[in-house]
Amino acid sequence: MTLIARLRFPHPLYLGDTLLSREGAEVRQLAVPGYGDANLFLLPDARASLSGLVQKLVLPNENLIVAWAGSLLQARALITELDTAVRQGAATSADALRVIFEQDEHDRDNVSLIGSIIRPRPGGLPGEVSGGHFAYNYDFGDTWETVEVRLAGSGTASMLEILPDLLVESPILQGQDQARSAFSFGLALNGYLSSMQAESPANFSEYWGGAFEAAFLQDGQIRKLDRIVHLRCEVHSSEDGLYFMAISPDLIGQRYVGNDLVVSAFHSRDRNISIHLISPLLNAVRPVDIAPYQAVDFDYDVLSCRISCSGSEDACLHIRTRGADEPRLVGIQREGDRLTFWFDSILGRELIDIANAAWGIVISDPPVA
């Protein structure tokens, strides 16, 4: 049970959660980024339990991406077969589906696969690609606002509630080329789901969530969204007509070390930082040097910030990317029960600019100490 999605603009955007579940009442503790034991959020009559974390977006070679839901063992075997076929020249959706249907039905009856084979376009410009996009045993498929949507997993119903409004109303899709639209919307959707889970982890009872991965085309290559920090802000008005911004005391930082996803989570309930290692489906090898995996890292190349306005039902998600030459520092200071968040001046300026753009309001710079 899971949540995977592909949106084609027509450049493909992939999204996947990381939760694993298993049938039966037997429950063991499972720490999820930003939370303690995720099984505590399940309903008393739950038919299954949350059992682990693993990446659902698989990039076995530079020409193939597959998102999977369902049986881990079936997914691993089928994606290995697809990897071999693509390395041997498979290039179309028909090629991919032929590989899948060649397997015994009992080896593919409990898995969903949504994928793309990406190759350079013959005679095209550098970076131009052609794609063989395939989907097997998916739960939903349609086209909204010219965007082709494929969904699978237990989170499909929730995604169907989220996507239409985002696709119809999103300014992200206005006036951008296909590649930029896919990239920008991937950031927005990744941040939206992370923020939604942080506010109310009801999705755990539907057996999806954890951390979220996104992948997209960049310069003709499939890449995963890397070095991202998620945070939430609320803008409040005071009686004197001024506004102030409150930053939620929770941070989620995601980065890749090799093929492993490392998630650093600061959660205010117990005021500490937890680090989670989420391995890929294929070739998961215990690292010899674990120091890079143990480092707390809230440095970022992409800041995902969801801002909500007090007294309004509207929530606005904005994404800012940063240049590599700018400072990248997010700090947390704790004094007893008091939590203080401090940012470099550029980040503070970004937050103010985001709020101004969102509501047309004026927020003063923080006072200089």
Overall pLDDT metric: 76
**Classification by helices and strands:** alpha+beta
Order of helices and strands: EEEEEEHHEEEEHHEEEEEEEHEEEEH
Q: Indicate the proportion of strand residues.
A: 35-45%
How would you characterize this protein structure?
There is one protein chain. It is built from six helices and 21 strands. The protein has about 375 residues and is an alpha+beta fold. It is globular, with a radius of gyration of 21 Å. It starts with a strand and ends in a 10-residue tail after the last helix.
Short summary of the structure?
With 369 residues, the chain is of the alpha+beta class.
Can you give keywords for this protein?
seven-stranded mixed sheet, alpha+beta, 369 residues, 21 strands, 22% helix
Write the layout of secondary structure elements.
Blueprint: E1 4-8, E2 12-16, E3 19-23, E4 48-53, E5 57-61, E6 64-70, H1 72-87, H2 93-101, E7 111-120, E8 129-136, E9 140-144, E10 147-152, H3 156-169, H4 178-199, E11 213-218, E12 221-224, E13 228-237, E14 243-247, E15 251-257, E16 260-267, E17 272-278, H5 291-294, E18 302-309, E19 315-321, E20 330-335, E21 338-343, H6 345-359
Helix pairs in contact: 1-2
